[in-house]
Amino acid sequence: ATSGRNAMSDLARYSIPVLQPSPDVNAALHAFIGMYALPALPPRAIFAGYQNRVALPCGSNEFAVYNVTQRIRIGTNVEEFVAGAEPSDPGEGAGVPDHTLTTTLYRIPARIDLYSDTDAAFHRASALEVVSRSPAGVQFFQERGLSLLYADTPQDTTVVLDAEQFVPRWSITVHLSCCVRVAIALQGFDVVS
User: What is the distance between the alpha carbons of residues 176 and 146, in angstroms, rounded to a whole number?
Assistant: First the structure.
């Protein structure tokens, strides 16, 4: 007869599998634009990207819109095997089953569109690009659980808006990265009799 601890029976008790939440990319981008797009924009003039039922500011073309354009997997998974702790073991994590921690790295391009009736759109895009290529930008995103890789050169993407007039728009793409982690219990036994 075979007896022993089956790690799968512990799944419900220890909430495994577990997905480690990804950093809040939208909150990080909103704060980044609010802090470094100069001349400064008020928070109410910064929008998470191109959603339905979000009204743009009335009477002003001074605003920014950002959106994540992709989440691109980089490489293959990294597997880490983690030995569990017996229920009788003292300390935190007692009784947690053996599990694998699977990690995948993603690159996250995020486009930022800056609008203005003046050259302010270009100045804001340039300021964001400069900060994105500096230690200050790296630290800003690192504090929010993201890695800042680089930013593309600002591009003139002027558009026609509601008033059927051209509005200067300058766009940059900021490239971020983060890891997604999932813990999955391993089946096993520790006694054969």
Answer: 7
**Beta bridge partner(s), residue 179:** 105
N- to C-terminal Cα separation, the chain: 6
CA–CA distance, 44 with 58 (Å, rounded to integer): 11
CA distance linking residue 128 with residue 13, whole number of Å: 46
Q: Are 141 and 148 in contact (CB under 8 A)?
A: yes
d(CA 142, CA 148): 7
**What amino acid is encoded at 38 in this protein?**
L
d(CA 111, CA 174): 6
- Cβ-count burial 95-106 (b if 16+ within 10 Å, e if not): ebbbbbeeeebe
What is the structure's pLDDT at 7? Answer: 36
pTM of structure: 0.79
Closest CA to 103 of 8, 12, 20, 3: 20
Rounded to an integer, what distance in angstroms lies between the CA atom of residue 170 and that of residue 60? 16
pLDDT tens digit string along 117-148? 999 999 999 999 999 999 999 999 999 999 99
